């Protein structure tokens, strides 16, 4: 009995220390940092654009110095006084994708990027780093945040965008907070948007592990109005004036729907608790996009809306890679085969033990023949991340491979479950 009481006391003490860590360095506010990522295939740079404060902090208050995933970029915040690491996070960006295109070899561009950090109580150093596909540093910037800086823009105190909760399970700091934004919906079309947002929510929580971990999420639908109805489709010479200036044909890929205006996205959310973003586009054109720790953007009125919004959220929330591939192409510029990808659902076998090797039943052939997919639910199937050879996925089919498959594979489910637990436990 005494031993049990001692263990309980130690557990409570550790819990208290964990709770005190956030309060030791941070206040219950959000520091929003807007950056510009600029450059071309040969040279890149990072610039601070603007600093803003938001009324509350909706992110995690534990695992503060740990990365959720490695990502294509990382942010580390240190206490300026003694250089203690007090917060870390990771991300990917449209800029880094663009650097792998032919256009980046002949043109210099700049891309907006916005990140949310807990508000430091005293001066802090923020280091942001971009990596190339070989995990080499492409660009890095360190700058000082002084919370007393009078030029930090206060946002979210007035003029808050109309919104309603579709799911509310608890305080923002104890749940994963997802905001669903309207793109290309006029003020008169907001009832349609709310119905579309409800359908997106229903689709997400029809999939494991979201279904069984639903109580760990808050979902808010944000009625951000656009001047025009619909979104821009450049290949059809259709241009619309919308809230976030999204358009198809990103990097001249007809189905790739993105927005270059990340500041506008976050402006629309000021004063609302959020960590992750889904944007619904008011169009029946097929397409979408998902960027890890940035946003999901998908069309709301195509017949494949339900599977696509879940697939793209697998990218933006879960950091999952695409599992489809092309037999005639090997895109080693994107995923070199001599480096283990950071995404948890693909592998080059350089460091397979860090992925799902422990999930493969004994006796399963590795690589696993495609014709044996009914026998081996988890294996090492060649072909993933756009490449026919050299990259592998964990199951023959998955939500991250095709719209027709009804579920995330066991490998993706475990990766998503671990991430939800990281944010909420």
Give the percentage of residues in beta strands.
Answer: 25-35%
**Please, what is the average pLDDT?**
94
The residue ranges in which pLDDT falls below 50 over 5 or more consecutive positions are 1-20
* Category from helices, strands and their pairing: alpha/beta
Keywords:
425 residues; alpha/beta; Immunoglobulin-like; Collagenase (Catalytic Domain); 6-stranded mixed beta sheet; 6 helices; single chain; disordered N terminus; 4-stranded mixed beta sheet; globular; 28% strand
Molecular structure report:
The chain is of the alpha/beta class and 425 residues long. Among the domains are: 23-154, Immunoglobulin-like (Sandwich); 163-319, Collagenase (Catalytic Domain) (3-Layer(aba) Sandwich). Helices cover 19% and strands 28% of the residues. The protein has a six-stranded mixed beta sheet with strand order 9-11-10-12-14-13, with helices on both faces. It has a four-stranded mixed beta sheet with strand order 5-1-2-8. The two termini are 28 Å apart. The model is unreliable at 1-20 (pLDDT under 50).
What would a concise description of this structure say?
The chain is α/β, with parallel strands linked by helices. The chain has six helices and 18 strands.
